[in-house]
# Entry
Amino acid sequence: MTQQTTEPAKAEPPTSALDLAEEFLDRTTPLSRIRNTLHRYPAVSPAIVLVVAVIVFGLLNDRFLNPANLSLITQQVAVVGTLAVAQTLIILTAGIDLSVGAVMVLSSMVMAQTSVQLGLPGWLALLLGLVVGLAAGAFNGFLVTRLKLPPFIVTLGTLSIFVALTLLYSGGATVRGAEMPELLTAMGATFNVGGVNFTVGVLMMLLLYVVVALILAKTAWGRHVYAVGDDPEAARLAGISVNRVLMSVYLAAGAILALGAWIQIGRTNAASPNAGAELNLDSITAVVIGGTSLFGGRGTVWGTLLGALIVGVFRNGLSLAGLDVLWQTFAVGVLIIVAVSVDQWIRKVRK
Amino acid sequence: MTTATDAAGQAPAVGPAETRTPILRARRLVKTFGRVVGLDGVSLELYPGEVLAIIGDNGAGKSTLIKCLTGAEIPDEGEIFLDEKPIHFKRPQDARAAGIETVYQNLAVSPALDVAANLFLGREERKKGILGSVFRMVDQKGMREKARNELRALGISTLQDVTVPVENLSGGQRQAVAVARAAAFGSKVVVLDEPTAALGVRESNQVLELIRNLRDRGIPVILISHNMPHVFDVADRIHIQRLGKRAATITPESHSMTDAVAIMTGALRE
# Structure
């Protein structure tokens, strides 16, 4: 309604005073204009939050904007940022995946164990880790599309299953990076850009964001993901196979989680069956703070990257400010609630 | 100039229509649900370039008739011809592939996608060259251009910006998007199920205008509606269902609204 299109000269005038009033209100309330903008570009609000947070923490502590500290933040964000891409895809379809961290850990243990115990070459171990990620995604996708179970319930169940499988398979033992083939720990290697050290894992995560963002924005599949999350019935009537789209999303998520496993091994220089328990929920946090709607059909992976960075910046900044670690957790909780409240408000653009 | 129910299922004679070939023809359709008879030998003819309204009381068989024509239900008996060729739809996609597009009452649009993306939803066009074939990129610019042309051709002047998400549109504009999607892509028949039921006066008028535009472009329309003034405003012929049968096919010139209601309720027999 607020488009700047020029009406044709013979445009039919609004027929009643009510219509006039409606259009008048629609155009002139500054708040509703802000809301319309946020509605159209959901990554705007997390971008503002991130910029403000960086400025505030930079003012609070000199060390915050230190290149070494910024590098540390990106490394801390790399794994959860990768998992959050998978989570974004699933949440865009109005689903949710509580098992992303568990799948990542299972995949990383398979990579580590098959290379160390079976002596497989690095590339084959990575491939097996990918197969595990895809199989886990296929299992979740099967339960969601064929048995028509809600994704929340499916992944709550598979979370326990994958955690148990990981511990059974690994015997609870951590595998050190030094024992693994070099390829498996390659994501931990660092390189220098303008005085800031980045790891290959961070670069890989950024590359993943670019690729997935392009696919979502530029391909028919990407549009179908949004359409399915938006209104599955409308998507079906438009001739889209909803189940096929859902299945492909869970498979893609599984592949991304395997990539996350690789990055995790590089980041910690180890594969531990007890790692990543908090990542199941942290990935959801990043997606939600990034402005993606839990109701599906709305959001971008760029918002998710901002969301992951916001969490990383808050945790790091608050700890540099000398606050108890519990206050970091507290702040993240507040961020989630504020983000979802803003989402609800934005969605009220038209009843 | 009116026609009575023809038990034999022959085309009723309405003005010059008798000499034309119907684009869509149903012969003696029967559909039962358990012991309930939904359709009891209903015939219907849709001619090129006309708006055929289907009216009837609740339970008269309007919806069942439409579902049989659009593949959502499979009739137990009877035949359906499209362009004089017998057709057997098993699912809605079959009817769509054959050129029968349906706009559902619940507005099958994706709110968060923009107007152009909705018009092309499920049949996106890819870019030329390897960007399209290898990288599977959609031709956003081309589809937006085509969407603009399509909307202009349909006379939808209120929708000039095809990049607006559909949820930012009014009910009438959304209906226009749904109708435009049905009318685009060379469809042969457009079926509209209660398109004005949820709309205000001004928006209803826009949709009625849109229906006339469709007809003027040569696309025949089947319109299901409860709203007598709308039906009499826009329809060329009116098919009246009563108790699972075709009670009559009338025209707005030959009968008044009161007559139509009387036929619908059985007070008047043709």
Observations:
- The mean pLDDT of chain A is 88.
- The two ends of chain A are 14 Å apart (CA to CA).
- The longest helix of chain A spans residues 242-268.
- The first strand of chain A starts at residue 175 and ends at 176.
